[in-house]
Amino acid sequence: MKIAICFDDLIQFGGAERLLLAVHELYPDAPIYTSVASDDWLKRCPDNRIDLKTSFMQNLPFKKSLNRFYGLLGLHALAFESFNFDDFDVVLSISARFAHGIITKPGTIHVCYMNSPGRMFWEQCDYFEREGFLSNDLIKRLFQLFSVPLLSFRRLCDYACAQRVDYFIANALTPKKRIKKYYRRESTVIYPFVDESVIGLDETNSHVIANERMRVKQSNNGTALVTPRGDDYYLVITRLNAWKRVDIAIEACKKIGVGLKIIGEGSDKARLLRYALVPPNDEKGRNDGGVTDGQVEFLGYVSEQEKISAILGCKALIVTQKEDFGITALEAMALGKPVIAYRAGGALETVIEGATGEFFNAQEAEGLVKTLAQFNPLIYKPESCKSQVAKFSKQKFMHQLDEFVKTVYDKHHNL
């Protein structure tokens, strides 16, 4: 059985990219096709013995900064349709936007592991609502004028692409519902995994974060280095995109006067930095709570060890977005830490209220403030958090995925 793997793009490194590496570990001879890859990924692939195939988009300028806008223009769709998979028995696409748009001949089976139908196309109000470039009213009106017909066309194209997939796998119940709603297709749920190597770690066998990079404090020249110490901080780990709603965590922690560390990079970082420095009751009449010394830290990208250390030192992980699944919440629980999550999406499948964490009901700062004010990290047993992670093992994920692929392959070849 000759297999190829497809992935949207290799620009960042997060949960989806970790899953990709696990799939390649399962099928080490499978080449990985992607629209575009960053320089970091081009260096990483030889180290992981990955045969990487990129498209014409690799030659476009400003790949990292303009990648999303290339997607709006349909360039990723053209990129994936340009690949030839005639020599493969099975193509496994891992998609949250574009990779499921490949074209295969009738004898080639296309299995799509769908993290979620593209939010850019199907949930554009949430996706673009708080983008920094839309703060200008004129730009916002122009964007709405051109994006409405463009996104409507992209949805039609995305729906057509989904009909070419032979089998869908959803990474959780929320994406399963979206696949049914947007594509009118059925899917099988195979949950992603949490790195089991972190289970059993605690503060006694983990190093303190060695390089705390960026901290935010009000000052005359912008920022100064300040650090919340000990376990007096909450933690956010996510890509800094507007729809992730990290601003909720910033405002809530400012209002109750507790520290917050933020791990991750993304297009919304500049806006969040400005937001963290807004004084209470500023000239526009907003009541954002203010910033006190050492409250908000932006750590950027960190190593795996630094991330583990940050989790081990925090009161709890805060999840402000409606995640499709949310592997980071499981990573925190694997390290014995509770999770405070917005009551929606994948968190409902992973967090047990009162045992491994708590929920806040409204996706706004006031809702999170109420939960934080009542939160006592001492009542959550590390053993309970760790036991919840057991059903999301890497071995189980790889076994279920491999069995699924073998089953559909045998089914087609026995026809």
TrEMBL record:
GO molecular function: glycosyltransferase activity
Pfam family, one: Glycos_transf_1
Domain Glycosyl transferase family residue range list: 228-375
PANTHER family (UniProt xref): GLYCOSYLTRANSFERASE
Protein's recorded name: Glycosyl transferase family 1 domain-containing protein
Protein source organism: candidate division WWE3 bacterium CG08_land_8_20_14_0_20_41_10
Taxonomic placement: Bacteria, Katanobacteria
